[in-house]
Design goal:
Blueprint (H helix, E strand, L loop, with lengths): L7 E2 L2 H10 L2 E8 L2 E8 L1 E3 L4 E7 L12 E13 L12 E16 L2 H16 L18 H9 L1 E16 L6 H12 L3 H14 L1
Antiparallel strand pairs: 1-8, 2-3, 2-6, 4-5, 5-8, 6-7, 7-8
């Protein structure tokens, strides 16, 4: 990842927080000089330094995972920045964002217990964030009949990515003059939820 010094964030804990909050990622591998891309939710185990997820077995990418080097890209708050929000009238449009790039080696999980543990943790990660969780009980995989659970397991390829490198980048107007930066934050704060979350990220970066 291209990370100029102003946008480089060397903070693994912050990277894992972004992965937790923005868990839908792009997974990229190269096999026989062909780039393979898949988009999927993944969760991180910061203590073990692994990412965990699964692909549909019918996805050709799923058969090209084990032992392959991979990059997983997570994009956090992001959005367009208009020159009209700057004090400086000579500025041009840009895009602000937070992103984490994870590099490592993939390992396919074959033991039923490992696969089930990954599925349980994956669903729990998102179930506990449901907006209506107070009005309904959390969905758990053990609610499935045994035969359906076995069919589910057979229809996926579960994996872990052993993390070798974490690169966190935050392009959040750090190089701008305070007045221009504040103008962007003010405008984004009046926008939709995505824009407001980007404004929050800018405030945190300036703290």
């Amino acid at each position: 990842m291209y990370r100029p010094p102003a946008y480089r964030i060397d903070d693994d804990a912050a990277a894992f927080r972004l992965i937790s909050d923005w868990a839908f990622a792009t997974l990229a591998t190269v096999h026989d000089r062909e780039i393979q891309l898949s988009q999927l939710p993944m969760i991180a185990d910061a203590e073990r330094r692994v990412l965990r997820g699964h692909l549909a077995r019918a996805n050709p990418h799923a058969g090209r995972l084990d032992g392959e080097r991979a990059i997983a890209l997570f994009t956090g708050p992001q959005g367009y920045v208009s020159p009209n929000w700057y004090e400086d009238a000579t500025r041009v449009p840009t895009w602000n964002y937070l992103a984490v790039e994870i590099t490592g080696v993939l390992r396919v999980l074959t033991a039923p217990g490992e696969v089930d543990d990954m599925l349980i943790d994956l669903s729990h990660h998102f179930e506990e964030r449901r907006h209506d969780i107070d009005r309904d009980s959390e969905w758990k995989i053990d609610k499935l009949p045994p035969q359906k659970r076995e069919a589910l397991r057979a229809g996926i390829v579960a994996f872990e990515l052993d993390i070798e490198r974490i690169e966190l980048k935050g392009k959040l107007s750090q190089k701008d003059k305070p007045a221009d930066r504040e103008g962007v934050i003010k405008a984004l704060s009046k926008g939709d939820e995505a824009q407001r979350r980007l404004a929050d990220a800018m405030r945190e970066a300036g703290a």
